[in-house]
């Protein structure tokens, strides 16, 4: 079917600013992805999947400039021992990165997967993204596959001793970055991937994660704290039998953030937890879009999303649990909650279930409201100033999402940052 | 129903529920009345619109209104966002107007109505004689005379056959008649309210309805009047290949109250038939309207052949402060249902409630729910939706709760549960939640963990374990909803009371 003219024009205008990298073995995958973009067109405000988030600035031919945050704050996981992989305005920077060799994991640059003939990465690139286009199209992810300029391939074969930290630094106010990572966790292997940093003025990131039977991947990400950046990220995860995937995202500030998580449980007894906490202030629009597909027996999935919003901030949650026919004994849980600290902020949610199997337990909940006056009064009556009491209750509210992080040192790092930011802002 | 007999149900699902669903699935109203009909030519175009208008002896402004709607309709696309699938509808290959020949001369009273028509309603359990009590309701004979009176407007294909108790209602100042009569007799009221809740171009089917609606009911309750009896409309599709497009307009003026019931059935046929109705309700200050539906259109056979496509737009506008509307629906029929009775809570302190039980079996598809649009301060809404799916059916709850910035201190509570019987069917939930101020509270849940804590505590105190307590409270609530249905629906609803939602999924 022909695209509406507006969409066609917008898509062509965006494509005109991009050149497909000379990418050797990923060429075919990129061409296919481009075909997907041409077929669906880039999203616009009339698309149902973008009902609550205007994609205009993410689709525009050029990124709107974003001031680089001048900040003396140290990097979030600085106190932790980790392997750093640094991207400056979307370009891998070896000088700032650690030595990439670490026992239990093999890390390569995306551009090297062809010359080094890294089979798994060549076979994974663009594949999970393509699978994730059905039943809902995700044209920004296809655009990413077609035009990504950098990224890493992480092959987890054992149990590396420390987390791998992808650090995105933002230096140019004009930066417009397209990154694509592929990750493969082998059977029995286990790793933690951290992502931190503001990345770029406009950031389009795609991550494809394939977890084999009995593999485990932890993912913790901190987005923020710069005000003007825009980001659209996609994480495509496929889970094998008895594998585990646990992801947590903290988002603070940013004019526009759209985080899509697409999780497919394809092996029996797999577990997927996807969580997020966000603190939005002022000109802030944050969108968590999650799509979990149960396609195997006895799998468990959890979605826990908490948003604290004030000064006109907008929080969006679109979550879906799809239980395919035959995916019996599924345990699906989804909760999305917002705390609106003032009257200007808004929370828009669409928590969906689509179930084709009868022996399942799926539940979802969504609530929205102001801070609990009784709790506030209780704290105040015990001498806690209003400001501190509000922060305390806000933190307590976010805790349910932060609790999804298994590693306590990572959770503590997140909590201490949250405390600092709340104190600074109030 | 053989398919359901062999279905392995998941442990924990109540056998009584399975039986009740099976019972609902046997269609008792599939017979046809043999009666000579008069049709307008097939298809829809401005001439047909004019013809319908002419048959109803409408004034010029009404004809113009219809033609404008038709013009809009030709520019609209059919909606495709609902989770329902059906072959494309050929809008030009069906009749838009069909009336029994005997209705050519409008009968002056019920005594003059064709006995065949009266017999049809008799057989459906809806006697059109004022002195008769409603058939089929146990114990109704003993009910006090006042309590058992129900005024009925009977719509047969495209025309209203008759309306009972009109004279008695008139004494109370209540106007209850067919909409075609209202357009002739009370044009000022119709003109003032028609299309103000569901605008002409609201959606594809509402626009089509605006152009070609042939009849329906009109209710006006004057200020301060509590309608002395329940009002009801019974829709019967009988003619083949004919769409039914009815329009209902209910106006509850300040401080009034009315309970309105709607029932519908159709004969069993191989070819699907279209039913696209519009219901508009206007509720002024301190008024209250209760609208109950038992939708039992022919659902198609066990292979999904035939049945009614039920594409309905229903909306209540709580214009006045402290106005209240309550939608209760039991949806068991139709091959495809696309229906979202909605509440616009415009007046401060207004209230909207939506209780729904939707049961789909065989190849039925239902996409139903509600919209609660909170505009006024301190408005309250409650949504309780129970969907049950069996066979190859698909059952979707789709709803919107919207708290506008000015709707301070408003509350919404939503609970939607679904139950699957068998592994070939589907249950889906698509809620939209939009909160634009922070003094309002919105809760959407599909778990049983948040049942009223006090009630739970009470039950547990008396030695029940948590699960028992939750089941008791939830089931008690479900029964409450059903028992709140007016007595006339009791028969159909009674068996549904047995339904338990243990083992349900969000």
From TrEMBL, chain A:
Signal peptide: none annotated. Residues 173-397 form the SUF system FeS cluster assembly SufBD core domain. SUPFAM superfamilies: Stabilizer of iron transporter SufD (SSF101960). Residues 25-157 form the SUF system FeS cluster assembly SufBD N-terminal domain. Belongs to the iron-sulfur cluster assembly SufBD family. This is Fe-S cluster assembly protein SufD. The gene is sufD.
TrEMBL record, chain B:
Signal peptide: none annotated. Pfam families: SUFBD_core, SufBD_N. Residues 235-477 form the SUF system FeS cluster assembly SufBD core domain. Residues 171-226 form the SUF system FeS cluster assembly SufBD N-terminal domain. InterPro entries: Fe-S_cluster_assembly_SufBD, SUF_FeS_clus_asmbl_SufB, SUF_FeS_clus_asmbl_SufBD_core, SUF_FeS_clus_asmbl_SufBD_sf, SufBD_N. Belongs to the iron-sulfur cluster assembly SufBD family. This is Fe-S cluster assembly protein SufB. It comes from Ruegeria haliotis. The lineage of its organism: Bacteria, Pseudomonadati, Pseudomonadota, Alphaproteobacteria, Rhodobacterales. The gene is sufB.
């Amino acid at each position: 079917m022909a695209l509406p003219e507006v969409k066609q024009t917008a898509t062509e205008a965006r494509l005109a600013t991009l050149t497909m990298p000379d990418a050797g073995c990923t060429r075919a995958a990129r061409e296919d992805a481009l075909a997907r973009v041409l077929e669906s067109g880039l999203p616009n405000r009339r698309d149902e999947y973008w009902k609550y988030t205007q994609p205009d600035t993410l689709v525009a031919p050029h990124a709107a400039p974003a001031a680089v945050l001048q900040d003396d704050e140290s990097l979030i996981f600085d106190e932790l021992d980790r392997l750093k992989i640094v991207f400056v305005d979307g370009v891998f920077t070896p000088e700032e990165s650690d030595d990439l060799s670490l026992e239990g994991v093999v890390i390569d640059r995306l551009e090297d997967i062809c010359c080094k003939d890294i089979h798994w990465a060549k076979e994974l690139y663009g594949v999970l993204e393509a699978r994730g286009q059905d039943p809902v199209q995700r044209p920004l992810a296809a655009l990413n596959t077609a035009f990504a300029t950098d990224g890493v391939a992480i092959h987890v074969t054992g149990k590396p001793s420390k987390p791998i930290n992808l650090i995105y630094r933002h230096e140019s106010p004009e930066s417009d970055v397209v990154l694509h990572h592929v990750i493969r966790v082998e059977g029995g292997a286990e790793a933690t991937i951290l992502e931190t940093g503001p990345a770029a003025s406009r950031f389009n990131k795609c991550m494809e994660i394939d977890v084999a039977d009995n593999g485990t991947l932890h993912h913790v990400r901190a987005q923020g704290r710069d005000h003007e950046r825009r980001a659209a990220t996609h994480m495509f995860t496929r889970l094998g039998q008895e594998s585990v995937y646990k992801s947590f995202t903290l988002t603070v500030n940013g004019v526009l953030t759209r985080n899509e998580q697409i999780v497919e449980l394809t092996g029996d007894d797999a577990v997927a937890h996807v969580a997020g906490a966000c603190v939005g202030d002022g000109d802030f629009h944050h969108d968590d879009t999650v799509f979990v597909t149960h396609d195997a027996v006895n799998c468990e999935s959890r979605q826990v999303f908490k948003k604290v919003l004030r000064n006109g901030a907008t929080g969006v949650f679109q979550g879906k649990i799809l239980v395919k026919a035959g995916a019996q004994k599924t345990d699906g849980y989804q909760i999305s909650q917002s705390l609106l600290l003032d009257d200007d902020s808004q929370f828009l949610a669409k928590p969906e279930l689509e179930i084709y199997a009868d022996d399942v337990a799926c539940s979802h909940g969504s609530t929205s409201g102001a801070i609990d006056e009784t709790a506030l009064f209780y704290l105040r009556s015990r001498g806690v100033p209003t400001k501190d009491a509000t922060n305390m209750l806000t933190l307590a509210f976010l805790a349910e999402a932060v609790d999804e992080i298994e590693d306590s040192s990572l959770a503590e790092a997140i909590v201490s940052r949250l405390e600092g930011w709340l104190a600074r802002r109030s | 129903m053989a398919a359901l007999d062999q279905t392995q149900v998941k442990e924990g699902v109540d056998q009584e529920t399975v039986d009740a669903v099976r019972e609902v699935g046997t269609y008792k109203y599939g017979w046809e009345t043999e009666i000579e009909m008069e049709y307008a030519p097939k298809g829809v175009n401005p001439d047909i619109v004019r013809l319908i208008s002419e048959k109803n002896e409408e004034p010029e402004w009404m004809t113009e209104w219809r033609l404008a709607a038709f013009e809009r309709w030709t520019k609209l696309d059919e909606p495709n966002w609902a989770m329902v699938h059906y072959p494309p509808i050929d809008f030009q290959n069906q009749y838009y107007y069909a009336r029994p020949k005997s209705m050519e001369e409008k009968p002056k009273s019920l005594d003059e109505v064709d006995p065949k028509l009266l017999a049809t309603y008799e057989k459906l359990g809806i006697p059109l004689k004022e002195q008769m009590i409603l058939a089929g309701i146990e114990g109704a004979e003993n009910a006090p005379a006042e309590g058992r009176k129900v005024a009925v407007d009977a719509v047969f294909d495209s025309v209203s056959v008759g309306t009972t108790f009109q004279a008695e209602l008139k004494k109370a100042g209540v106007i209850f008649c067919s909409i075609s009569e209202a357009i002739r007799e009370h044009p000022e009221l119709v003109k003032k309210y028609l299309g103000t809740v569901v605008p002409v171009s609201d959606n594809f089917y509402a626009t089509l309805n605006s152009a070609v609606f042939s009849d329906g009911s009109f209710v006006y309750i004057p200020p301060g009047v509590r309608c002395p009896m329940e009002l009801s409309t019974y829709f019967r599709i009988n003619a083949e290949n004919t769409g039914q497009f009815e329009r209902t307009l209910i106006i509850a003026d300040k401080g009034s109250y009315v309970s309105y019931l709607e029932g519908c059935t159709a004969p069993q046929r191989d070819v699907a038939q279209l039913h696209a109705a519009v219901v508009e309700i206007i509720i002024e200050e301190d008024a209250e309207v209760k609208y109950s539906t038992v939708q039992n259109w022919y659902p198609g056979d066990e292979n999904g052949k035939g049945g009614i496509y039920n594409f309905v737009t229903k909306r209540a506008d709580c214009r006045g402060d402290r106005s209240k509307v309550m939608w209760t629906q039991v949806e068991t029929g139709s091959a495809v249902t696309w229906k979202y009775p909605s509440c616009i809570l415009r007046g401060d302190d207004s209230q909207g409630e939506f209780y729904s039980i939707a049961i789909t079996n065989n190849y039925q598809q239902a996409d139903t729910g509600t919209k609660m649009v909170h505009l006024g301060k301190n408005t309250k809404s409650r949504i309780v939706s129970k969907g049950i799916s069996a066979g190859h059916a698909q059952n979707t709850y789709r709803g919107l709760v919207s708290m506008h910035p000015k709707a301070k201190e408003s509350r919404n509570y939503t609970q939607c549960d679904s139950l699957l019987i068998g592994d070939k069917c589907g249950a889906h939930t698509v809620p939209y939640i939009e909160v634009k101020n922070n003094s309002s509270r919105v809760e959407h849940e599909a778990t049983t963990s948040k049942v009223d804590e006090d009630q739970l505590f009470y039950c547990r105190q008396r030695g029940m374990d948590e699960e028992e307590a939750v089941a008791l409270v939830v089931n008690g609530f479900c029964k409450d909803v059903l028992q709140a249905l007016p007595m006339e629906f009791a028969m159909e609803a009674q068996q549904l009371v047995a339904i338990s939602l243990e083992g349900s999924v969000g």
